[in-house]
Every structure is written in C-alpha cells, then in structure tokens.
C-alpha cells in the first residue's frame, strides 16, 4: 500500500529530500531527551509523571508504526512482522517502554514486580542511534573495521593480563588478589591513574612506567582506526 510506503519513508532515517522524515527524526530525538528527565529526579512529582506518560505514549506509537512497516524494512514478506520484535533496535524500544507501562499499572500486585526494572528506561538513550545519521556512520565504521579493532582489543587484554601477572608476583603485599592487579593494569593502560592502588617497590614503579608508555600507544590505535574509517565514510557519502 502506498500509505505504508510513505509512512516508512517518514519514520526511517531522513534523507536530504524528505522534510517530514527529518522533522520526525528531530522530534523523536527531543522526545528521547525529555524522557530521560524523570530518571534524573529521585522523587517523582506530577511533572515528571506527566513527562514519562506523554513520552512513553509517543514511543508506543512509534513502535506500532515500525511494526506495521516491518516488511518494508526487513523485506521478508509476512515473516518480517514476526521477526521485527526480535531485532536489536526493536528490543531496545520494547525494553525502554515496558517499565513505564508496568508502572502505570502498578495497582496489580503481579505488575509491581516490574518496578525493579524501571531503571531499564535509561535504554531510551540508545534509541537516538536510529535517528542520528552520524551515529549510524560510526556503527558502520565499527562493522568495517571490526577485525583491526578486535586485534587491538586482544592486544590490550593480553597486555593487561601479562602486566597484572607480573605485578601480582612482584608486589604481593600491595596486590592481595589477582583482580586488584588486573584493576591496576587496566587503570595504568588507560593512563587514568586513580592512585588508590599503586606500586611501592622500584621494580613495580619501573613496570608502571612501562605500562603507562605502552598504554598511550595501545589506546591511541583504536582512536586512529575509528577516525580514519569515519573520514572514509564521510568522503564516500559526500561523493554520492
């Protein structure tokens, strides 16, 4: 049906020619930001309850519209309507909606249990991924550069484990458990340096210096890979 195709064009990420789609994306991003406000307030009041009620209604409508056009997105015919609720973004949509829905029905004893999951409303932040073209570009960069990033990640994990093992055996008094040594190695690798656990012996200090120096290089690698991939995607998009 033509109306479903027009609807799909609006609710999907906007292109430069579709003004309604761009307006819809901006509206949804504003709604997402507003929906987070109640989470920043410890004691709920009428205003925060109203904000949560209005935003969750909009999210429900958005979810229904996306479900109605699932076949246009997944392109699997009627099977798309059954598969869509299990796609990553649809799961995020549902998880961000359910806590508010169950809180609205908190008079039922069974549904009161779902109060424990009200924190899941924070997942609404991830809905921004759908409406931001830049974030989608970054996701594509991670997908294309995943092999290089996995290698760097493996290198970082290996270095953390080796550094932790060395420090755990060199300074047994300072690091009572291997987890403490891993924590120290991670902090040193990222050059954060909280200072709550640190080496006291000369050998330990030398290892710390080496760890910090190598940490700068290892941390810089993924940043360079992502930046290069992002610029490549930007240039490719501009050339189209």
UniProtKB/TrEMBL annotation:
Record field: transmembrane: 23-41, 53-69, 89-111, 148-169, 181-200, 207-231
Primary location recorded for the protein, binned into one broad class: membrane
Single biological process term from Gene Ontology: action potential
GO cellular component, one term: voltage-gated potassium channel complex
Alphabetized PANTHER family for the sequence: POTASSIUM VOLTAGE-GATED CHANNEL PROTEIN SHAB (PTHR11537:SF254), VOLTAGE-GATED POTASSIUM CHANNEL (PTHR11537)
Lineage: Bacteria, Bacillati, Bacillota, Clostridia, Lachnospirales
Topological category with respect to the lipid bilayer: Multi-pass membrane protein
The protein's name in its UniProt record: Ion transporter
Lineage: superkingdom: Bacteria
């Amino acid at each position: 049906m033509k109306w479903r195709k027009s609807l799909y064009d609006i609710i999907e990420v906007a292109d430069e020619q579709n003004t309604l789609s761009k307006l819809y994306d901006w509206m949804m991003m504003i709604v997402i930001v507003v929906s987070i406000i109640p989470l920043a307030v410890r004691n709920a009041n009428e205003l925060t309850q109203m904000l949560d009620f209005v935003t969750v209604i909009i999210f429900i409508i958005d979810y229904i519209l996306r479900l109605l056009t699932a076949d246009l997105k997944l392109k699997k015919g009627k099977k798309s309507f059954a598969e869509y609720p299990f796609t990553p973004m649809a799961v995020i949509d549902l998880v961000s909606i359910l806590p508010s829905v169950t809180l609205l029905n908190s008079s039922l004893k069974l549904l009161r249990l779902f109060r424990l999951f009200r924190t899941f409303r924070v997942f609404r932040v991830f809905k921004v991924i759908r409406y931001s073209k830049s974030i989608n570009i970054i996701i594509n960069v991670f997908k294309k550069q995943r092999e290089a990033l996995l290698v760097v990640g493996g290198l970082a994990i290996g270095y953390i484990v080796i550094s932790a093992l060395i420090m755990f055996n060199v300074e047994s008094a300072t690091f009572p458990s291997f987890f403490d040594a891993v924590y120290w190695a991670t902090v040193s690798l990222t050059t954060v340096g909280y200072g709550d656990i640190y080496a006291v012996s000369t050998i330990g200090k030398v290892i710390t210096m080496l760890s910090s120096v190598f940490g700068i290089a290892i941390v810089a690698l993924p940043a360079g890979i992502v930046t290069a991939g992002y610029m490549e995607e930007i240039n490719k998009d501009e050339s189209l």
